[in-house]
Amino acid sequence: MMKSADNTATVVETIEPNSDVLLDNAGKKINIHVTERIPFGHKFATRAISKGESIVKYGERIGFASQNIEVGQHVHVHNMESGRGRGDKT
Amino acid sequence: MLFSGYHRPNGTAGVRNHILIIPSVVCANRVARGISQQVSGTTWIEHQHGCCQLGVDAELTMRILVAHGTHPNVYGVVVVGLGCETNSAQDVAARIKEQCPYKPVHLVVIQDCGGSLKATADGASAAREMVGQASCLVREPIDVSELILGTECGGSDACSGISANPALGIASDLLINAGGSVILAETTELVGAEHLVAARAVNETVAKRCFEVIDRCEKAAIAMGVDMRGGQPTPGNIQGGLSSIEEKSLGCIYKAGTKPLQDVIDYAVPIKKKGLIWMDTPGHDIEQITGMVAGGCQIVVFTTGRGTCCGSPIAPTLKVASNSAVFEKMHDNLDINAGTIVTGDETVQEVGRRIFDEMIFVASGKLAKAEILGFNDFALKRIGPTM
Q: What ranges do the domains of chain A cover?
């Protein structure tokens, strides 16, 4: 996790489905059960995120959930959307 | 702190001593390349434009070509034109000579020479003379405050914002502490992070400019009527784990370090201030490098997660890998590994220091891999239609 306000964590090695991951959030250890395969450099949800809620990394909004996301699920283009430069939404 | 470089009579400092062959128009590319291939110690550029351009668009092409000719990394210039183009070779050569009267500038016009073979021979003869003169110059100690660093990230992955960009940010801060200038660019890749950069602006006017250039960039993307995703982030960025332009941008800004933002300037405009400057360029890697070099940056440090091999024809372009896997895989093209931050073997500060030291070493003459392999990437940004 980059900042404590984040609801996603970035993995620096590929994580296989159904792995338990110990996260360091500003010194506080949290255990997360990762349910899906998370390729190197990709993100998983560190808590449940409802559709329309902000996706947060670096302590900043990086987009919105396009569907409900469970804790431990892969967060990427299939379940989140950018809020910027959306010519398709105008 | 000193590096070893070339003092130019107009007070600027070069880190290279190139003889550059510039075609004023696409029709002169073959001759420009032919001249450079004949004469060792020269480099050349090629581009698609220089004719059937209007107004500010034609002027931008002229300005970028002239700025490459007047650049402190360039000792002498051969300008090649066809003879009937909008962007006349005579004007390019005259403007270079006007701004740098001390610089050898030779003009070749293909139609006047009687064809491409004669033009190539004429240009090669002049270039041969210049290479001989240039080789007599010796490097001298110059303060690093004369350096302008162009920062860039391309082929980013999710590690770029964790390792290579924060480490480049440390190197940027070190150069600014030493009195130098650093360019932050690629406006598209600041969409979503502009508030953080604007918060570092030295005054309200500069802060306001940050939001204006982002607004213009975002409106241009929206005007295309599609989701920016696909163009930004690119398919490779997405494979690397970046899900949105905001995520990419938030990782991008780390390469600009922590210093105050002094100014926001237009594409390819000369850098006049010390400290951190935002140049409003596209996210397109080569258009960005071309704009920064036209602004006077003598050296580029380019971070990458997916791997890239490009390089400016006149400014050494150092590559920093964001992860060790890509550094190993593309070792021929990547100069520095910041993947050691991801594995916990080095800190961001340690790698940042290493980037800074390597940058000074390269400014003093060590060749970047892109130079050894002969990369001469050059792309003109267009702001008008081809007529």
A: 8-89
